[in-house]
Design goal:
heterodimer, A: 341 residues, ABC transporter involved in vitamin B12 uptake, BtuC, two-stranded antiparallel ribbon, 15 helices, globular, B: 505 residues, alpha/beta, Rossmann fold, 6-stranded mixed β-sheet, 22 strands
Chain lengths: 341, 505
């Protein structure tokens, strides 16, 4: 698909950003920056890849930050209050994320709600639910108890790949966090799902022209619900990574994550007009955003200025997307009149 | 041929929307290897019938059988599985996806785990291309193809199904003459392979060129069925438009026409153009006349009149109003020049459905009801009562929500809203779509009254019956060009039909 900001161009822009900060920011070009980027933005990439699915079916999922919070609290409660073993908690967490996401889809399909409104409502509802089931408030004394289940804390593991293959003797290699490999696995799975399966093609068709999809016999409602469920599962995975890192969950876990994820997805070329996108773009988009924010921090730019910059980047990405859509429409119109003669 | 059992058969099909019957008691059959034309004016019920047969619409009554077996209604997938494919008037493709993906939309061959078998998909597609002698790049996104090629993708989509019946809804509406011939060759090839085809078209030449049998619809009913060989054009036209109108049209007793009205030119367009949309459009619109622009859907009539009103801009040419150059940049400046505009989609663009009749009528004339910074409800109600009376809106209740009125009465309110401004120029886009026959006549009467008061009226209409009834002069648009203008009294409907189709025969 040559009509999009291509993956190659995105990678090039990523490389230019890295080069820029390597020159301009002190201590940017170091192993620890790469490590920070991988461990601090792998879950953002996962959220962005999940977010891509609702956007692909011409919707949006504002509730993913709240789902992160909810799943995080479920993990907290199961582990610390009910002492459920970690190998049971992991699938339950994914199931909770899938259900929370699927509920978004059900509201949108069966109640014909606007995705923006439906997920704004569930954002509030899921966050409120997180507070009401919070083990931190229900059981006094748990606030300071860390989660020690090895199945969960094991997610926060680092691998000294450089050391094991002997490369560390030559250069200072970063340690690779497990979350980075989880991100790669999610990427591989979702990319195959999107590009090589019937379901993936049906998803693009639903977002590209829902009426055509319906008339081709595609079950548009089921596809839409599944897209939101995928977004929910990705939020659950992100929640597990964050809980493992902090060895606890708070009621505010994941607040505002939806904006970063939407920004990363749109920067990664997932069109808000629906039906166009890949998994590669959102992943790179997340790390691009991460590189920019880490670079700015090292340059000493204050936090609030970084937030302004994130906003500007999101606006620029959405504006560029609009431009591409308009250009495509104009091309279509020209083709139509050209043929009429 | 009649010995064959029908491949597709609808019995007693009907569909009502609210209190409007779009289709009533339709029996319809297609046999293998038969090309059946389905014709009728706009709103005659053709599209509704087609949508029932494809499963896109659930009929209110009746049954559909495919090869003698009852088919599930309102189930697109069920119809496709049973071999009924449709090529729609408007594109039904996903523009960002490749040609290959579009051909197999929703039913790609898969291997284990739902992985698409791209190898097999491509082999089958190439085989299909070779068999039907069609040349197309399977990997191009459909959105980047010209319209002709997009039509071919839709045909390929139907062919890939091994469809036993293909419904074609105005398949040539967007095509140039050479491409029409090409499409007809494809239709004959399909017929030879025993596929049943339903061919909808406004262009009679095409019917006589390619169809075996013809079904004629009017006002939601099937009024005639015949072999094409056994029927002639005047009969077809008479059946399409109805005896009464045909009689009127042939007699000179039709209501008075006023070509060029009072002779005063209100609006004068010279060589108007908008890049990629329309071009070289020149005409004069006179005070006291009704000028109808007709043409196929997609001939850019709507785009042209939107530009005249100012909701779009034109790139080239000049526009004069009352002899002075007019630079209309926005609907506000259009209104300042005395133009009123009744858009095609009254629900989306014309009316506030959840406000009442009085409020809607006052919408364009709020200035008149101002008392200082406030609006006078009393003044609005008085104006409303008068307008309701003049327009004979039923029920005559200014407090009624517009949503609750019938289509015809909604349209009267919309027209009345603009007439309240006493516009010097009134532009109406498809003023009677979805309006019943009685209300149509009333709307025509309202337009004639406004004409009598000296307004210049420009009507865009696809409904030839309407054009022949109401027009003083007729302009024909084809593909963004105004190809002909006629005095309505000096031209036949047949000639207009020929010009609309772009045919020369």
């Amino acid at each position: 698909m040559k009509i999009r900001f291509s993956s190659a161009a995105l990678l090039l822009f990523f490389a230019v950003t890295l080069a820029f900060f390597s020159v301009s920011a002190p201590r940017f070009a170091t192993a620890s920056t790469v490590e920070n980027l991988m461990s601090g933005y792998a879950f953002v990439a996962i959220l962005a890849m999940g977010q891509a699915w609702p956007i692909l079916v011409r919707g949006i999922d504002l509730s993913i930050g709240a789902i992160v919070g909810l799943v995080g609290m479920i993990v907290f409660d199961l582990s610390l209050i009910f002492s459920v073993p970690g190998y049971v908690i992991l699938p339950l967490a994914l199931l909770a994320g899938a259900l929370a996401g699927a509920l978004n889809g059900v509201l949108i399909v069966y109640l014909h709600l606007q995705p923006f409104i439906a997920t704004l409502a569930t954002l509030a509802a899921y966050r409120g639910l997180t507070y009401s089931i919070s083990g931190r408030q229900l059981v006094p004394g748990l606030t300071t108890t860390p989660i020690r289940d090895p199945w969960i804390t094991g997610i926060e593991t680092y691998f000294d790949l450089g050391g094991s293959i002997g490369l560390s003797r030559l250069i200072n290699m970063p340690w690779f966090p497990l979350s980075f490999f989880i991100m790669l696995a999610v990427f591989a799975l979702l990319q195959v799902l999107l590009l090589a399966t019937r379901f993936g093609r049906d998803t693009c068709a639903t977002g590209g022209n829902a009426e055509a999809a319906r008339l081709a016999g595609i079950r548009v409602g089921a596809v839409t619900i599944a897209a939101y469920a995928i977004s929910g599962i990705c939020a659950a995975i992100a929640a597990l990574i964050m809980v493992a890192r902090f060895t606890t969950a708070t009621e505010a876990l994941g607040s505002g994550a939806e904006l970063t994820a939407i920004a990363a997805a749109v920067i990664g070329g997932v069109s808000l007009a629906g039906g166009v996108g890949s998994m590669f773009g959102p992943a790179i988009g997340a790390f691009l955003l991460g590189a920019i924010l880490i670079g700015l921090t090292l340059q000493g730019v204050p936090q609030f200025v970084q937030q302004i910059i994130t906003g500007v980047i999101l606006l620029a990405a959405v504006g560029y997307d609009r431009l591409l859509v308009l250009r495509r429409q104009r091309k279509l119109e020209t083709a139509a009149t050209g043929a009429g003669r | 041929m009649n010995a064959d059992a029908p491949v597709l058969r609808g019995v007693g099909l009907g569909k009502t929307y609210g209190n409007l019957a779009a289709l009533a008691d339709a029996d319809f059959t297609v046999r293998p290897g038969e090309v059946r034309a389905l014709i009728g004016s706009n709103g005659a019920g053709k599209s509704t019938l087609i949508k029932i047969l494809t499963g896109a619409v659930l009929p209110t009554r009746g049954t559909v059988e495919i090869e003698g077996q009852a088919a599930p209604l309102g189930d697109p997938l069920g119809m496709i599985r049973r071999g009924v494919a449709c090529i729609y008037q408007h594109s039904n493709l996903a523009p960002a996806m490749s040609v290959l993906d579009n051909i197999y939309l929703g039913r790609q061959p898969t291997r284990a785990l739902g992985i698409v078998d791209t190898g097999r998909q491509r082999r089958e597609a190439l085989d299909l291309l070779a068999r039907h002698d069609i040349d197309i790049d399977l990997d191009r996104p459909v959105g980047s193809l010209p319209t002709v090629k997009q039509k071919e993708v839709e045909i390929l989509k139907a062919l890939a199904l091994d469809a036993r019946v293909i419904l074609m809804d105005e398949p040539t509406g967007w095509l140039a003459a050479a491409d029409v011939a090409r499409l007809h060759a494809t239709v004959r090839a399909l017929k030879a392979r025993g596929v049943g085809i339903v061919y909808i078209s406004h262009v009679l030449d095409e019917i006589f060129a390619v169809c075996d049998t013809v079904t004629i619809m009017r006002d939601g009913r099937i009024v005639a069925e015949s072999d094409v060989a056994a029927i002639d054009r005047p009969t077809v036209v008479r059946l399409m438009v109805g005896d009464k109108l045909a009689g009127e049209a042939s007699g000179a007793a039709l209501q008075q026409r006023h070509p060029r009205g009072t002779g005063v030119v209100r609006m004068s367009a010279r060589d108007l153009g908008k890049r990629g949309v329309f071009g070289g459009v020149s005409f004069d619109l006179h005070a006291g006349e009704i000028f109808c622009l007709t043409g196929l859907i997609g001939s850019k009539r709507t785009e042209l009149v939107r530009t005249l009103f100012g909701s779009d801009r034109f790139d080239t040419g000049t526009l004069e109003i009352d002899g002075r150059p007019a630079d209309i940049r926005s609907p506000q400046s259009g209104m300042a020049h005395g133009i009123g505009f009744v858009p095609e989609d009254r629900h989306r663009e014309g009316l506030m459905l959840d406000m009442n009749v009085t409020e809607n009528l006052a919408m364009a004339t709020l200035d008149r009801h101002r008392r200082g910074p406030l609006l006078s409800r009393g003044s609005m109600a008085r104006a409303g009562r008068q307008a309701i009376d003049e327009l004979s809106v039923r029920p005559p209740d200014g407090g009624k929500l517009v949503r609750l009125l019938s289509g015809g009465n909604q349209q009267k309110v919309l027209v009345g809203k603009w007439l309240g401004r006493n516009p010097r120029i009134l532009i109406l886009d498809e003023p009677t779509v979805g309006v019943d026959v009685g209300a149509k006549a009333e709307i025509y009467a309202i337009l004639r009254r406004a004409r009598g008061e000296g307004a210049a009226i420009l009507v865009v209409s696809s409904d030839l019956e309407e054009v022949m009834t109401v027009a003083d002069r007729i302009g024909v648009m084809v593909s963004g060009r105004l190809v002909a203008t006629h005095d309505a009294g000096a031209v036949t409907q047949e000639q207009i039909v020929r010009e609309i189709g772009g045919g020369t025969a």
